Amino acid sequence: MMVPKIEKSIKVKDLLKAKKKHLNLKVVCGTQHLNKKITTASLNRPGLSLSGLLETFRAESIQILGRGENAFCKKEKKAVLEENLGKLLCNPAVPCVIITSKLKPCETLKKVCRKCKVALLRTDMDTAVFSNELTGFLEGELAPVTYEHGVLVQVSGIGVLIRGDAGIGKSECALELIKRGHIFIADDIIEVQRRRSRILTGTSPAILKQYMEVRGLGIIDVELLFGVGAIMDKTRIEMEVNLRHPEKVHCERLGLDKQYVNILGIDIPSLSLPVTPGRNLAVLIEVAALNEQLKQQGIYPAKNFNKKLNKKIQKNHKKTNEKK
Hints:
Blueprint: E1 10-11, H1 12-19, E2 25-29, E3 37-38, E4 43-44, E5 62-65, H2 67-75, H3 78-89, E6 96-99, H4 107-116, E7 119-123, H5 127-142, E8 145-155, E9 158-164, H6 170-179, E10 183-194, E11 200-203, E12 211-214, E13 218-221, H7 222-226, E14 234-236, E15 239-244, E16 260-263, E17 266-274, H8 281-296, H9 301-323
Parallel strand pairs: 4-5, 5-6, 6-7, 9-15, 15-17
Antiparallel strand pairs: 1-3, 2-7, 8-9, 8-10, 10-11, 11-14, 12-13, 16-17
Helix pairs in contact: 3-4, 6-8
């Protein structure tokens, strides 16, 4: 059963706890306001908003003040600057303000931050470097999450999400893949994150990591049985394989019809395999993963075969017409 997307947030104090030393962050003022929530990984440079233009102001983002913003604050009249900063920072959605590049915040900025109950932080890091580091951290913490049922394995470098009806053999299939040298990530519940670059990554909840349930055997420890090289913390999810009862699936013989599944707004290729006696599903999934690698390189065997077939048919048809 698919669980709805979970929107995440962290508090400013959690950011400080996790990255205070790495990002060289210090609190200038507003220690009592560190409980404000950060809900987006995108950062905002106020820029023109400091002059009173509010249309482009993104209040929900952490506000980053670099050399340009600091120079503007020093040149602007104090009364005008205080008024404009008040319009920006008194928005309750603003999580905090961070000034970069060893710059000292002006007194007006500190005054407005205290008045609007917003924490003001500073760092010695250059704005561009700091922004990249902070965005990377926030993306990992705030990426949308959902939970999918199935087994996640990495087959020939391709993350494959194996799904299907209960008892159809998902874990047994994954077990065979592990025996063949492929890598296990998660069984039963997969935590899926969507990264900013439109990449899906899957991992196992901590309590289930390295464990797999196999009907008749119970819970097994994949790491102890097959070694540390048989497991991985996370992988990119690049395709889905559905194990289905034969009567529930229609097989397209050539493989020209593309099927997709949408997870967290991202479409990934989906393949349905009928489960019948004698079929080696592990081998089929291996081949499916290798075939997906070819497609990612722009090589489509089914399309190439279809083109050759059509070309042959047209050639034979032309010969037949010439004889007539």
